Structures are given as structure tokens and as C-alpha cells.
# Entry
Amino acid sequence: MQASIPSIVGQMIVFFIFVLFTMKYVWPPITKALEERRVRIAEGLAAAERGAASLKEASAKSDEALKAARVQAQEILAAANKQATQMIEQAKATATAEGEKIVEHANGEVARQVAHAKEELRKQVADLAVLGAARILKREVNASAHADILQDLAGRI
Amino acid sequence: MASAEQTPAEYVTHHLQHLTYAGDKQFISLTAWHLDTLFFATILGLVFLTIFRIAAVKATSGVPGKLQNFVESIIEFVDNSVKDGFHGPRGFIAPLALTIFVWVFLWNCMDLLPVDLVPMIWAQVYGAMGHDPHHAYIRVVPSADMSATFALSLSVFILIFVYSFKGKGAGGFAKEFLTHPFGAKMLPANVLLNTVEYLARPLSLALRLFGNLYAGELIFILIALLPWWAQVIPGMGWMIFHILVVTLQAFIFMTLTIVYLSMAYEHH
# Structure
């Protein structure tokens, strides 16, 4: 066991050389890299945060657009329904009117036919009456001379 | 392992002899050079500087490699320790703390080598060089040599004064030395107390590290004297415990350096 002064002095010199080397060539590059990485990580985190924020914004925007589209679709659907109902109503009304018109027309026709038939019948009755009377009277009634009477008869029937 | 012609005492003594160049056998030698300590300490320092320099050259701010990760974690650990203890410019003191921590750690790690490995190789080499292999002395743990630990602690001692003058100026330092802690009226007591305090710092710093590692080495040597089948359990136990000591002593040396320089730099 011995402490040797020359060794101590030599060791001290070596130590200071090592410290100076570390100070100049080891410490600065590594701490610089560490600091740069710290900055880069901070930037990356900030960018990620910005990305998340813009994603949130975009999703909110798309939600809004979706909602608006849904409302619009609802409106369009409602308008279409309304229009369809209207068209059906209109068609119904038209059909009803048409039907009524046809019925009316048919009624008119019936009435006319009935009147015509009545007229026919009346004429035949008049003819029959005249024929009957002529037979009864055994003489020929002048149809033209008694036309007004016959007409009157026919009108009464 | 003790050879046949060696008594245990001779074996232990042999292991505690330095490889010296010239010099006397005095406890404090003015002439001896501890070549083994200087050699291993320098080699370990160069290992440290090489690894860290490679990492520094390759350092990127992008994704770090494994070496860079390792080096960065050590540097951040040291930087945080310095930040916690020293409130001033860290341009010199942080690299100083890093050098102390890693260098002392590597010194201490030499204690984990088998105690006979390097001495046996050295005996072969020494014999091959035409000398008597029985006088092939070598000690591989620099921190188990007071020369190495005192070199560090005296460097720190010098730096304590440098930082005192830088932080307080020569006048401020003198004032604190003369009037602290009892006030100007108790000047002799202050001087006495401060002198003891200042001298205790390098002494305790160096002797703590030296004592721990010297004792550790000695225990390993004593375990090596046991029969081979009895070495495993105590050897393993001491080794595991010593891993803790190795790291802890390096950390303590670094931390105390920071604390002393911080005390020197700041006003009280």
C-alpha cells in the first residue's frame, strides 16, 4: 500500500486531458442531439394536436353537412308526397266530374229516348185511334181533314 | 490461487504489490511510478472516451441507435444530477461529472475480473521478457490505489478553489473563510474549522473510494485462498454485493464533486 506522488500528478494530468476532451468532443454533440430531438418531438406533438383538432373540425363539418342533407331530403320527400296527394286529389276530382258528366249525359239520353218512345207511342196510339174510329164509323175518316183532332188526341195521350 | 511454494500471507502481499518504475517503498513515495495504475486507468479512460466519442460523432436528433441510447441515458442521468446540485453554468462541470462517473465506474469494474487472471498473464509475459515471474507484480484496480483516487480528489480540491474564486471572487472567498460560520469575532475558530473542513474533503473523497475498493479486492483475494469448492458461494455473494458497491461508489464520487463545487460556487 503506497501513495506515489508522481503517479498522482501524472494521473491528474491524464484526468484533466480526459475532462477537456469530454467537454469539447463528447458532451456538446450529444446534448445538442438531445435538445434537437426534444424540439422535434415537441413539434411532432404539436402537429399531432393540430391534426386532431382539424379532424374534429372536419368531422363536425361533415356532421353538419349530413344533417343539412337529411333535412333537405326530408323536405324533398314531403314536397313529393304533397304533390302526389295533390295529383291524386286532382285526378279524383277530374274522374268524379267526368263520371258525373257521363251520368248526366246518359240521363239526358235516357230522357230523350223515353220522350222519343212516348212520341212514337202517341203517334201509334193516334193512328190506332183513327183506325179504330174509322172502323167504328165504317167510313174513312179523312186523316188530313181531321189532323188537328188527331193531333190533339195524340197530345192528350 | 496460491501456488505451492507461496504461503497465504505471501500470496496476499504479492497481490498487493504495485508494478512500479524505480522508486522507494515509502508509504508516501516521491519517486515511485505506479505503472499498473497509470496503465489501466488510462486504458479505461480511453475506452470511455472512444465509446462516447463514437456515439457523439454518430449522434442524430432522429431515431437513436442502441449505442446512442445507452450513451444518452448516461449523459442525461449525469446532466440531471448536475442540474439538481449545481445552479450555475454547467459547461465544464457536467462533462467533469460525466468523466468522473464513467471513469471511476470503469476503474471499479476492474475489481470484478477474477483476481488472478491478469496477474497470471502478466507473470507469463514478465517471465517471457527474461525476468523472474515471482516478482511480476501487477494490480488491475486503479481505484484500489490511493494514487488514483487522490489524483481525482486533489483535482476536485483544486477545482473547489477555482469555483470559489469564480463564484465569490477572492475577497468573497477570504471573507467566508475567515468569518463563516461563527462570525468575525471568532476568527481563529473559523479558520481552524474551515481548514479542517477543506482538508477533509479531498481526504474523505479519496479514502472512501480507495477504502471500499481496496477492501473489496482484499476480500476477493482472501476468497481466492479458499479451496476451489468453497469459493463459489462466497465469491458469488461478494461479487453480487460488489456490483452494487462499484456503481454506488462511482455515483457517490460524482455527486460529492457536484456538491462541493456547488458549495464553493454559491454564496452562503
